[in-house]
Amino acid sequence: MNKRLKLILKNPGFQSFLASLVCIVLGLLIGYIVLLFINAEGATQAILMIIKNFFKYPSAGAAMKYFGSTLVKAAPLLMCSLSVLFAYKTGLFNIGAAGQYALGAGICLYCALALRLPWFVCIVFAMCGGAFLGVISGILKSLCNVNEVISGIMLNWISLYTVNTMLAGVKEETSHYTMNISNVNTDALLPKLGLDKLFTNNQYVTLALPLSVIVAIIINIILDKTKLGFELKATGLNKFAAKYSGMAEKKNTILTLAISGALAAMGASLFYLTGYEQWSVTSSSVPAMGFNGIAAAFLGGLSPIGAIFSSFFIQHITEGGAYVDKTKYCSQISDLISSIIIYLCGFVLFMKQFMNNMIRRSELKKGGKG
Amino acid sequence: MGNEYAVEMRNITKRFPGIIANDNITLQLKKGEIHALLGENGAGKSTLMSVLFGMYEPEEGEIFMNGNKVDIKDPNDANALGIGMVHQHFKLVECFTVLDNIILGTEPVKNGLLNKQEAKKKVLELSDRYSLKVDPDAIIENITVGMQQRTEILKMLYRENDVLIFDEPTAVLTPQEIDELMEIMRNLRKEGKSILFISHKLNEIMAVADRCTVLRKGKCIGTVDVENTTKEELSKMMVGRDVEFVVTKEPAKPGEPVLKVENISIAAKHKGIKAVNNVSFEVRSGEILCIAGIDGNGQSELAYGISGIEKLIEGKLYLNGKDITHDSIRERNIGGLGHIPEDRHKYGLVLDYPLHYNMVLQRYFESEFTTRYGFLKKKNIRAYAERLIKDYDVRSGQGPDTWARSMSGGNQQKAIIAREVDRDPSLLLAVQPTRGLDVGAIESIHKKLVELRDNGKAILLISLEMDEVMSLSDRILVMYEGKIVGELDPKETTPEELGLYMSGAKNNMKEGA
Prior knowledge:
The structure holds 2 protein chains of 2 kinds. Chain A is mainly alpha-helical.
């Protein structure tokens, strides 16, 4: 019986799952402790609110509607986490996903509002923009040996202000937000495919949901079943062996970051083309989506399928944070708590290693009896 | 009484999941003797030493020193008891002086300030007494490997250790330095130190040791007096069967040149100098050409240059008459270059890939393994790997699904050789193909190389092992400081002569040739 338990514990898939679970629980626990410190009275209710999110609505219809809203924001998060994990498989850390996401948002909104193009053209242009940023990082990395994290962070700022400038021409006259797509160019809105009906007429539930899941599956197939995936993973696991066996590791670096950038930018268009939110042209930081993508990728055990669930979870608690009682806590509390939980989610790999060490140590110590 | 033993390890048993690393081993080190510990890789030598140093706690068994039972919990306990070790890979701070390294950790302090003068006096005295020639003020990275090793020995003597353990100390030395080391060990014995000498080189054990304990697969096969035994007997105890020391091979029948190297130079990694300096030679089909030399004289860079991992500064390379100077690694591979890399973990394998993926590392894109649309034909990859595993006797726990990381070093190397040989290259570049392998694996790899040669392949062997160079090669080139300093015929030369070339004392090449 003990033996069977050990076998299960050693299974890498189960380990990832368990590690993710432990991180989630730890994150919630620490979040709870922070809430207790700030205001012990409302802490239990607040943390329950975060976990419950849309379940707080008593009527099924309302719950469904807000479930839909969580999903609408989970789709771009999934795309960002795919972007991060795809690069990670090749040994690259695409922190530039945030900037690629921002540029994707800028391009798709510009195409939709200024050029009045239909949604699929907007997506394609946005993806080209994201890929372009990825290629810059890739070229700097492979030809000039500039770390992709450094160039990624720089490009994040460059793309933020580029987008602010670019969209200044299509903002509403009375606010600093971009115009509403549904008033300007309904062709640019993503088709709903009747999905809105499922979620109590939540008009923002669109094609984006199934599309992002399909992309996750495609990424999974590319990584697992194709020649390209074989090369990319080999390069990520051991770039020296990849070079020795004649793989073009420089070309692969550029290609990976290009695909990665396109994924993040596509994520942005899958969100902004629903019309759920407008871009503020006075933004002073890139949307957090790209950075949350890093946490979602790790929480999902760096598997595209795992990312589907982890992205939903992270979005779930982020949304839930908005329901925390604002009379007991200041308004930043929701961001604080969800970021603590997300932060802990990044510890999955560490947790996995820790568990492995524990198993090994227990084996070494009592190896004699086994 | 048991007082004649400096260290006595009685009935040590240490188990790991799945294997018994040490099975009831008894090792008795007499005072003032040189005791050899002989065994193949994985025989349990390092585990036994780790037990002695308190890094592992044995399930059974006891350790006695000078007749008293001791309890060694960690390496500090071992040091306190006067046990010191010279590791195979030296533990020295490269940018410190010899003296600094010797006193490191036991720095003499006077009024809170470092007092090096006194330490220096003691070191010089020790170096005189044991005839260990060192310059206390030299920086480690500027001195020879032999002197670095003497620094390590002085470190143990400075700490007044009485039990000295040498872990495969000759692996990095030239023949002359090995002779010197043997003399040093004899001196230490004369001064009453007890020495445990871990090795799998039988010649050295025969030359210097008094007694020898042989381990095989975790079991103690026996302890013999070296005086009353032979090399053959020892090797039989170690391997469990008779081993052929001499590689039997017909005279070579060299044919056309396969690889032509013309005046190539390759940059060194850091120092802005040429690691390979204007080197030219040819390798013909049906011959084994060996590049001999002490580690770090440009052999690794030469291999990188030929395989395409490093770019050439100047010169030309021809493979089968075709200029490959500017070809990519893949073009060279397809053009008939096979490469057994020096570092099998860094270059040879993707350790976190399963074996069947590793077997097609250079061929995965061929139509046998990938469809027109870029999908892997996993079934074919697996079948191919299964064939290689069978044909080349690669042993692995779960066949083609075994993770490369979990395989033994010998089988990892066999897998690489299977992969390279099966691509049917016209030139096989083998860099230290038997490094770190045991006698049985070495024997089988040597046989394979000779077989390839007899099938008309050209083999360029880069080796640091004197025995391997002497027994395997048809022609020897010696490299020293990036240049070829000698061409020798293995039938006419001696290890001593080879050693003179390797240390730069001799040169039979015309300048600029």
